[in-house]
Design brief:
Helix content of chain A: over 70%
Shape of chain B: elongated
Low-confidence stretches of chain A: none
Mean pLDDT of chain A: 82
Number of helices of chain B: 6
Largest interface: A-B, 31 and 33 residues
Largest sheet of chain A: none
Number of helices of chain A: 7
Oligomer: heterodimer
Shape of chain A: globular
Structural class of chain A: mainly alpha
Structural class of chain B: alpha/beta
Strand content of chain B: 5-15%
Distance between the termini of chain A: 12 Å
Largest sheet of chain B: 5 strands, parallel
Order of helices and strands of chain A: HHHHHHH
Order of helices and strands of chain B: HEHEHEEHEHEHE
Number of strands of chain A: 0
């Protein structure tokens, strides 16, 4: 990898901004679902993918799986696990969106508010957004798991040293 | 060791999130039970929240029964869909009261229909609870004979029953 790019990827502020964008998005996305679980349950039903018995449970649990891992990313707690949970959900959203785009099913995403346009062109935009967030999540997981140095400078330096050795 | 640490963090974060989710849902006024009613053959779908508007006893599940009431002619059919949808097509003779604008329309409606008149509300079908919401508002306004035609205009149109415009 280009050393400059490595330095950028490892930079403390870049890591912080990535975490805040990802965490902030999920905390924000969880609010309306927590306030109105019945409304969210109807959105989940509208995907026509989940068995009836699971819809209410999804509507109860998922908003908090967005909220707390999002909060953990913002405050820098359990970063790897928070990013793994968030990316697992993003992967599920991507699969769900792809299935609905493929079968041409119109639906209400319910991601950031209820009543978001669910027609196919909007679904493609949602897919792009989810893939972007997924990439941010991968960044957090890789940086926090495989480069376990605490400061950005040392992270970049160690990477550069490794490159020099090679 | 790394995976053990991640597994431990995951367990803590997931357990905490799920635990708080159930606790908040239990105490929240808008909380929902673990299982809702999502089978359209049983009526209008609902998460059965504490502030649920769906009342099964009010439902007219058979379109022929709705048509019979319509043909007798003493009941007023009230469309709970948006004004735009109503203007595109509606059950012939129906009036429009979108429940989200109930207080804008109810005074005019009360002037036309006394509270003793039987009222049948409807919206687009069994996945729409606005007919039930409107029924609750009308009951609160004093209407005593209110029913909800749950198949709504979609099935009515399919059957070729009278529509306007």
């Amino acid at each position: 990898m280009n050393p400059e790019l490595e330095r950028l990827v490892c930079h403390r502020w870049v890591r912080l901004v990535v975490r805040w964008i990802l965490g902030g998005s999920f905390v924000y996305a969880s609010f309306h679902k927590i306030v109105d679980p019945a409304g969210f349950a109807k959105i989940v039903y509208g995907y026509y993918l989940f068995p009836d018995y699971s819809i209410n449970l999804i509507a109860i649990i998922v908003p908090f799986l967005e909220f707390f891992p999002g909060l953990a990313l913002i405050f820098g707690i359990y970063l790897r696990s928070a990013a793994i949970i968030i990316n697992s959900m993003l992967l599920s959203f991507i699969v769900i969106l792809s299935i609905n785009i493929a079968r041409g099913h119109e639906f209400d995403c319910g991601c950031f508010s209820f009543g978001e346009a669910g027609h196919t062109s909007a679904a493609v935009q949602l897919l792009v957004r989810d893939i972007f967030l997924f990439v941010l999540g991968v960044h957090v997981i890789l940086i926090e798991t495989y480069i376990p140095w605490k400061s950005a400078d040392s992270c970049a330096n160690r990477l550069l040293k490794n490159n020099a050795r090679l | 060791m790394l995976y053990k640490d991640i597994a431990k963090e995951l367990f803590i974060l997931l357990t905490f999130s799920v635990g708080v989710a159930f606790a908040v849902n239990h105490f929240s006024p808008g909380g929902i039970p673990f299982f809702g009613e999502w089978d359209v053959s049983k009526g209008v779908i609902t998460a059965k929240s504490r502030d649920d508007v769906v009342v099964r006893e009010l439902e007219i599940k058979d379109i022929l029964e709705a048509k019979e009431i319509y043909d007798i002619g003493n009941a007023v059919f009230v469309d709970a869909r948006s004004r735009d949808d109503y203007e595109k097509a509606h059950i012939a003779g129906a009036v429009s009261i979108p429940p989200y604008k109930f207080y804008e329309y109810i005074i005019e409606f009360e002037a036309l229909c006394p509270v003793s008149v039987p009222v049948v509300t409807y919206c687009s079908g069994r996945e729409c609870e606005d007919g039930h919401m409107l029924a609750q508002y009308l009951i609160e306004a004093g209407y005593s004979d209110v029913r909800v035609f749950i198949d709504g205009c979609s099935v009515w149109f399919e059957r070729g029953f009278p529509i306007e415009p």
